[in-house]
Amino acid sequence: MIILLGSTGYIGQEFKKQLEEMGEEVCCLSRTDYDYYDLHTLREVICRRKASFLINCAGFTGKPNVDAVEDQQDEAVRANVSLVRVISQACKMNDIPWAHVSSGCIYSGTKGANGFTEEDMPNFTFDSPPCSFYSGTKAQAEEAIKKEAEDCYVWRLRIPFEEIDGPRNYLTKLLNYPMLLEANNSISHKSDFVKYCLALWKKEANFGIYNVVNTGSITTREVTDMMNKVLGIDKKFLFFESEKDMYALGAARTPRSNCVLDNSKLRKALSPMRVRTTKTALKETLKQYKALEQSRDGNGILKSFWD
Question: Which residue from 68, 79, 111, 218 puts its CA 20 to 30 A from 37's CA?
Answer without folding.
Answer: 68
